[in-house]
Design goal:
- By secondary structure, the protein is an alpha/beta fold.
- The chain has one domain.
- Helices cover 35% and strands 14% of the residues.
- Strands 3-2-4-1-5 form a 5-stranded parallel sheet.
- The longest helix has 14 residues.
Amino acid sequence: MTLRVVRLGSARAPGEGLRVGTVRRPPRGVPKGELASRDFYDVWFPNLSPSEPLLKEHFPIADAAAWKRFARRFRAEMKEPGPRRDLDLLAALSHDTDLAVGCYCEDEAFCHRSLLRELLEERGADLGRA
């Protein structure tokens, strides 16, 4: 079993399993009934997305220094009890089922999903590569 970190809206990998959208908002212009069939997500789970204030303050990310500030603040948000438990749950599920988490950003290097990958790895998740 494995947990993949993916770009939402990209083609699903064979055996990817349940796709979880860790984004603040659903994609614009996509009817709810088409989210899964258009490879966005099966379940919307904004619990592991950056907070609205964090997004407003830091996006778009302009450079490495801005990314470092964003990453530090996002990691602090993920230390709160709710997100911490959610990360623990996904890491545990990765050992028993195939699933994927993701975001829309084109460049994972400046996307919170890269930080989710690290946080899940720190919790012992069985991670696959997208």
